[in-house]
Amino acid sequence: MEILLPVAGISVNLFLLIGCGILVGFLSGMFGVGGGFLLTPILIMIGIPPTVAAASDSCQIVAASSSGASAHFRLGNVDAKLGIVLLLGGLFGGAIGVQVIKVLRAMGNADLVIQFTYVIILGGVGGYMFLESLQSLRRGSAPSKSHRPARTRGLLNRLPFQMEFKRSGVTHSIFVPFFLCTLVGILAAIMGVGGGFIMVPMMVYLLRMPMHVAVGTDLFQILFTCAGVTFMQATTNHTVDLVLAILLAVGSTVGAQIGARVGKLLRGDQLKILLASIVLLVMVKMAFSLVMTPASLLSYAKGH
Amino acid sequence: MVLAAAVCTFFLTVAVVHAVSEGKSDREGLRVAPDVIHMGTFYGGMDVTITGTAARGDQVVVVIRGADVEEVLNRKARVGPIWVNQGKVHISGVPSLFLSFSSQPIDKILGREVIDAHQLDESAIRKQMHVSPEAYDQPVIRENFLKMKTNQNIYEVQAGRLEMGTPGPAGTPFTVAFRWSKKAPPGLYTVSAYECRDGAVAGELKATLKVDEVGFPAWMAHMAKDRAALYGAFAVIVALLAGLGIDFVASRLGKGGAVAH
User: Fold this and answer.
1) Which contacts of A227-231 are long-range, i.e. CB under 8 A and separated by 24 or more positions?
2) Residue partners of A79: CB distance under 8 A and separation at least 6
3) A32, A33, A272, B152: which is deepest, by most CB within 10 A?
């Protein structure tokens, strides 16, 4: 059954779109990642113009993350207070990242930097998470609450504006999550993605948040980020296809619900090793695409 | 006086013969069915048939072209062992869609110069396209562009697909039936039938094929373009409500025992 996408101007199989949504929504609900790094390339592969794919993807993430965040909220996994701090840090970092991209583009080597950043960040985050989770699984117990050296912990505790984040069970200076999220925001802007797959590991390993709360809180902040991006894309580039977004959203919200429940059935370290495997797979694919001769030397300009 | 009458009679005869031959061409001109394709909500492409009549013994090439466009693409280049996007390529003077159907392989019925002059195959498009910056490897860029369009079924050349009928007093009827790609965007397309004789184009028949969005898709496309702020806010609210609505339904189902919280 075909359906015409009004802004993309092409017809696509209805069930194919919903199926793509379910797959990506499942990952979103389970791991708290937005899924943009997976869905946009899939949409381009099925013939959606890249600019429409990227913009409509942001719109569907609003639906998927609102569904996922709502489910996690009921499960007690959303730390709204910390989420707002993370959101502000992410937005600030994103603004800096956009300027970094501008400078790199002017220098003519932005794409090389972006692709290398992808491989290094994905490899580093995925590799560390994979090994740590593997050790934890072998030990048969969850990792200890904190591995941070006492000296560093003391230093961080002396920072001003200490704040207790009850839901996450941690106390940090407000500058710590803000600064870390600024870094993630810079990377996310450079890499052109929402940043969930960096944000969740960062919350778990650096902010010492429980995995499930990290996932719920990440979905909470992704909701606001993508709502802003959707509005800007619609008003600036006119590339948001609402029909495409809603079909993907129908699939992804259902997938997110399933993902959130399956995620609840798994232990934190099991979730981590699964996410690590996906991140590593994407990294390996990107590393291969860097060295293998491409099928075509031309591709549609996606832009940031 | 007699001379003047003779000259008048001659020109009158020529004019009548010309008018009759023109009338014949009009009467049996190129027909595209349907000549307007409406893209509604559940549009999935359309079967299109092009028919006409060519002079006896002529071969025919039918070409459907979209308007010329300029495309901006990423160009991949090797930096050491790594392939990266390195710069943008501007390609202009190329049709947004190009479909060519012929009764025989085009290079067997027309000379290369004629094919290029009328832009009847991919080789002709390769020559007419303009690639900038000029410093780039032009043949490689042109070849890759054509390959990309062919893979998307936006450019297609099919020799032998067009069927010639039994010659009659009015000429030889020809038909080509094909599936209009669901990926072809809305627009006005030019349909041309070239009558080929002795390696040259002896005549050309023209028609148009209009593809437009109607109903809900047209309304949405209009909103997205002309009322962007309203559309953007609407998109965010609809997405938010869709997510919360599905979560509400899922939570009700969960309470029913389907899924434990």
Assistant:
1) A227/A62, A227/B236, A227/B239, A227/B240, A228/A91, A229/A55, A229/A58, A230/A55, A230/A58, A230/A59, A230/A62, A230/B232, A230/B235, A230/B236, A230/B239, A231/B232, A231/B233, A231/B235, A231/B236
2) A165, A166, A167, A168, A209, A213, A216, A217
3) A32
User: Amino acid letter at A218?
Assistant: D
- 3-class SS at B177? strand
Task: Return residues 148-187 of B near A (CB < 8 Å).
Answer: 148, 151-152, 182-183, 185-186
Q: Is residue B225 part of a domain?
A: yes
SS3 B256: coil
A3 chain-B contacts, CB cut-off 8 A: 41-42
Do the Cβ atoms of A78 and A72 come closer than 8 Å?
Answer: yes
| B41-89 confidence digits (pLDDT tens) | 988 889 999 999 999 889 999 999 999 989 888 888 888 888 877 778 9
Q: Are residues B123 and B158 in the same domain?
A: yes
Residues B171 and B244 in one domain: no
List, for residues B112-147, the tens digit of each pLDDT value. 999 999 999 999 999 999 998 887 788 999 999 999
Chain B, 13 to 72: residues with Cβ < 8 Å from chain A are 39-45, 72
Q: Which residues of A touch B72 (CB under 8 A)?
A: 301
Does the interface ipTM go beyond 0.90? no
- Please identify among residues 83-112 of chain B the ones whose CB lies closer than 8 Å to any CB of chain A: 83-89
Domain containing B86 equals 18-213
Number of domains in chain B: 2
